Amino acid sequence: MAEDTNFERDDSMSHPTIETALDLAFERARSDEDDSGAFYDALFAATVFMPIRNAYDDSGETSESEAQSIEPLVWEVEGGETLLLFDTEERLARWATEPMNYIGLPGSTFFKMFQGELQVAVNLAVAPSSVMIPAEVVSWLHERAEGIVETEEVPAGSGMDVTAPPELAPEAIGRITAKLAGLRREVHEAIIFSLAIDAEEDEAVRRVVLGVALTVGGIEDADSIASSLAETAMVAFDGKRAFEVALLDPESPLMNAARNVGVKLPIVDLTSLH
User: Fold this and answer.
1) Domain boundary residue among 105, 121, 146?
2) Euclidean distance between CA atoms 83 and 80, whole angstroms
3) What is the mean pLDDT of the chain?
4) Do 87 and 117 have their domain in common?
5) What integer pLDDT is reported at residue 219 of this predicted model?
6) Which of 54, 109, 204, 210 is deepest in the core (most CB within 10 A)?
7) Widest Cα–Cα separation across the chain
8) Closest Cα partner for 113 from 90, 141, 152, 91?
9) pLDDT digits (tens, 9 = 90+) for 86-106
């Protein structure tokens, strides 16, 4: 389904410079159609700005409950009713010909709200990541957003069986590694492992876990970091594998056990590779 999005650059636009993470993800998807999931991952993680009809005083980020009460503006684009999204306020202002009300909300929240009745234009004619997402793909993204699981910190303690993870697709590992690169100031260490709690019981469930040790700076934003990583994993595995995020003390018995058998992910600055 995701392949239906046409990742072609609009060469007629006057602002081709790559400026944001979404631009970079778009360029990767444009050069490799198998990497389209990385674009959607970046879109879920971005704050997106949407023109709305409602009078709305605060143009900053809004909660999901507040977002449910807004009425988006709908445009006719390429023969279909279209919702517009921009990944920066400057790009929205560049597109708009007159002042208008708008809100900012996480991309994942946007796709939870809209089920695919309309197509979505992202950064229409103002950025390298200018793309039209067909209604059927919007529906697919809605399902992915709805399926994002809650994350929780896995407590250290007895009754835990830590083993190496099952074989994971390199593409999925690559997307999680790319997400960690963007969190290198917040994440100190990240290891994927397999965990069963109360493993001696017949109904013990074995799960794939990303164990994360945060830096001092990352602790203050722990919940959003865990949620962001869970969203990345959901997109990376296309919802086909249960994947949990555990925020762990670097000296905890669980993290120490994971280091012995798990897959340690590099936390690098990917911008230095381009």
Assistant:
1) 146
2) 10
3) 80
4) yes
5) 80
6) 210
7) 65
8) 141
9) 999 999 999 998 888 999 988
